[in-house]
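ok posting inputs for the ribose-5-phosphate job
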Amino acid sequence: MADRDTEGSKDYQVDVPARSEPFFLKGSNELDWGLKNRLANIFDPSSGRTVMLAFDHGYFLGPTSGLERIDLSIVPLTRWADTLMCTRGILRTTIPPTYTGGIVLRASGGPSILKELSDEQLALSIDEAVRLNAAAMAVQVFVGGERETQSIHNLTRLVDMGNQAGIATLGVTAVGTDMVRDAKYMRLATRICAELGATYVKTYYVEKGFDTVAAACPVPIVVAGGKKVPEQDALRMAYGAVQEGAAGVDMGRNIFQSENPSAMIQAVRKVVHEDFKPHEAYEFYQTLKHETA
Ligand code: R5P
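and the output
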């Protein structure tokens, strides 16, 4: 039988105020515990930033370059990703359940690259997101697009479902090919996503005025990598984004289409989590590349 508790042995430290620390992510302080815990599985609490590895492109592009065999090209990279962004089909079939970082599930879809892309609808139920242990669900928002209102409605429905289950919602600003990718547009699109309840927002980096995009958005922003560019340029973009207020990157093609994807994702980590300058990160990339050649 356990010893009886004795009043004299207790220490309540009555002079020490109860700990009450603000949550490390912008705009997230008032969220419920479960949501914060999931966000801490997407963003590294020590740097406050994330390297999300995005390979959900197949949901409208099919087996695009670098994603023909996700088991061979992406799975070996997952050890360097804070978070994976993918579809439920790839998660179930290809990603080992031993992966313990955050999972961001693609939650909208419909049209392929052959059709009007803004015509997406929600493509995931909240039960599936819970079953698959998602930390967040991602939905495309086409501000200025042909189906703008429909895509905003997808976002708000997902926010309602996600908040109820304690799963974050990532609003993805999708910019039509005919639109100007400038700070003015990005401020509009990201702010609309945040105002309508997105837990965090994905957008594109712009050379001029990205700091105003980040400042005007009350929730964390991550930047997509976009089309494949030379490694130095992708590292420069990632550096500019985090230095000007982004909470990390959601990078796909500039990692998995790189000449050396494992070296590239590690170099991106240096920029995002350790504030490496672009030239330092590129040197690091080159060193790893030669080591693994
Ligand atoms: C695009 O719609 C996908 O959601 C990608 O996850 C996103 O664009 C990031 O990938 P990338 O860095 O290749 O642009």
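notes: The chain has a mean pLDDT of 95. The longest strand covers residues 136-141.
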